Amino acid sequence: MHLVTAKGILSAQNGMNLYRGCSHGCIYCDSRSACYHMEHVFEDIEVKENAIALLEHALKHKRKKCMIGTGSMTDPYIPLELELENVRKALSLIYEYGFGFTVITKSNRILRDLDLLQKINEQTKCVVQMTLTTYDEELCRKLEPNVSTTKERFAVLKELRDAGIPTVVWLSPILPFINDTEDNISGILDMCMEAGVYGVICFGMGLTLREGNREYFYRQLDILFPGLKEKYRRAFGSQYVVESPDADRLMRLFHKKCSEGRMLHDNGQIFRYLNTFEEKGASEQLSIWDLGIK
Predict the structure, then answer these.
(1) Is residue 243 helix, strand or coil?
(2) Rounded distance, CA 178 to CA 225, Å?
(3) Model pTM above 0.90
């Protein structure tokens, strides 16, 4: 790790990155893309040493309460968090100042902070977003080697359900010729239904590849799936969006199963839910039926 002094912590959309870089080792990681201008080795985590002070200043001076988000660039529950506890410190401030919170993670380390997540959710709203890519545990260990497996994440979703904390799953990315199967999509969605997931975000059956993450992805394909890189190059060339040949059929399956499981599956409506600050006591959380889903 290395320390930097940041000028600010919250984006215009009230998102924050306490860390930059990651040690999870997911083979498809978009955050490795050159457009994000990480000038350091990706696994050498950049820590904003003044992040907590900046966050408290920002929350003190916010004119309106809102949802605070984290995890879009770097999973905040990397192993280093157990040592530094910056996420936990941020959660304490978010609770103290009465803001809502949402996080994207793949780690069961989030359960360390279950007490604070519950307090925030009792006061305003807390939503945990979790990425699921494959139903197959062996494949999961290849695609996401240094993070909680799918079964471990599934256990987290159920524990959050039992704690009354709403969850959203990202069904992403779906890698052509690897996890783009009906069994995989059905298996993940069956887990989501059992865990009482509020909604499932899916931007299509594929992934994005651009300078930085494409090269890393292809190196990992050479190691884990010999010969598959050449198949990708023949099928997709240098395309940015790499879509499964079975995308249409898999998307129909996705929408059908989500409807059957009464899980929200319109991305726009899910993001509106995630971004909407709610004071508890005034009204209960919106259900998918309140949002007009049929």
Answers:
(1) strand
(2) 9
(3) yes
